[in-house]
Amino acid sequence: MHVIHLIANCSSVPYFNQFADRIGKYPEVKFSFVALYKERPQMLDDMKQRGCDCYWVKFDPEKRKSGMISAFFSLYRLFRKLKPDVVNTHLFDDSLPGLLAAKLAGVKIRAIHKQDTGFHLHFAPKWVWADKVNNSNATHIIAPSNESAQFAIEKEGAPAKKVYVVHSGIDLDAITRQSEADKQMLMAKYGLENKLVIGTIARLIEWKGYRYIIEAIKLLGSEADKLKFVFIGVGTQEAELKVLVEKYDLQNKVVFTGWVDRKYIPSLFGLMEIYLHVSTLEPFGFAVTEAMANGVPVVINQSGGAGDVLEHKKTCYLVEGKNPKSIADGIRWMLDNSAEREAMKEEVKKIAIEEFSVDKMLDGFLKVYRS
Predict the structure, then answer these.
(1) Gap between the Cα atoms of 210 and 4, Å rounded
(2) How far apart are alpha carbons 321 and 308 in whole angstroms?
(3) What residues pair up with 30 in beta bridges, in sequence order?
(4) What value does the mean pLDDT of the chain take?
(5) Model pTM score
(6) Of 3.30.365.10, 3.50.50.60, 3.40.50.2000, 3.40.190.10, which CATH number belongs to 172-355?
């Protein structure tokens, strides 16, 4: 079975590399990769050293419409030449030209991995019709969470028989590689000494729910004096969020780290007592599962893959995402129930290993193709 994975606007994709590293376990499967990117992508070298074929189709997202038309013809010619059994797309910009090209080239299995579920409905409604076109051109729709699957069926009109849930996988070894020296450095840098740290890792944009977290901190009042909320990320909403923090006089309770090198993320998890994540809509939510892999108890809303496997007050605390009072209540519960919080540490680590490994994700994809 020859499978081509296709993605746009990414020079290198960690789980593509991990798929390629593991494909030797499946001698009956050949993986090839296609990058739609504006300049020579790192993926060409990534896959060469892993023994997999990789192709580059030039695509400039700044010239989206003409770029998609050009990409369609390039992909059609490539698929006609390679004659793959499966074409698997991952994002909208590769799915629109890729699935149509695969269909016209006679590719029997055309899968779309819904990594950007809900983006158009929330931020560009006029493009929802194109999501429906992609669902029509796909023979299989892979949703990274139950919420994502439900959204595709109810909001994008996807036939339920086409939809499969496969949770995304994380590199468990890399994301849990903490360093005591790094933890000491980060603690001093961000003023975390003698504080109970509650962290959030996400872009500083509206749909990640930061404004509701800030409102929740305000509701905690003096209860938040012993806490330090660490917001890890960058984004277009940063200035607005900082103004809100100043308005409520929370400067001593909230730290904006800005961009943080990926190598320090495991050690930041090592400093957290609670991980807090309340995105409005999260197709999967990698940071939540990464926190779990590091044994950090989580306060989350139902959005994302972790919500599929966690249980309220047993392995997490579930809150209403746009409800500051609910978020504040979740934080209070975690603080007031230290024994339960301590027990969650090993439980969430175990769940992350069992449910969110790259091996399980790859096996899930292959089962979908064979279905």
Answers:
(1) 37
(2) 16
(3) 2
(4) 94
(5) 0.88
(6) 3.40.50.2000
